[in-house]
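To whoever is on call:

I kicked off a structure prediction for a single chain this morning and the downstream step that reads the tokens threw a length-mismatch warning. I double-checked the sequence; it's 67 residues and nothing unusual in it as far as I can see. Pasting both halves so you can look.
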Amino acid sequence: MSEPDKYDHLLTLSNQVARSSVAVIDAMSQRGAVKGEEMSTLGKLRDDAVQIIQVVENIQQEKAMEE
């Protein structure tokens, strides 16, 4: 696999994992499946996942504009 293909694969995989993480955390919190002491850790994980999604989307937009 070439370097650009590896990079694109990493972006795609990172985006998928981040989106799945946000969905799981949201579902867990809606169902009350999280203890109070776990909330800050899960909130941080969710915030990080949202940042990954935003970074990937920005990179993909920049790449699309270059093409």
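Update from on-call: the warning came from a stale cache, not from the record. Cleared it. Sanity check on the structure: The helical segments are 3-30, 39-66.
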